[in-house]
Amino acid sequence: MRVGLTGGVASGKSSVSAMLAELGAVVIDADQLAREVVAPGTEGLAEVVAAFGPGVLTPEGELDRPALGAIVFADEARRRVLEAIVHPRVRARGAELEAAAPPGALVVHDIPLLAETGQADAFDAVIVVDAPAELQVERMVGQRGMTREDAEARIAAQASREDRRAIATYVIDNTGTLEDLRARVAEIVAELT
Question: Which residues make up the binding site for ATP (predicted)?
Answer without folding.
Answer: 10-15
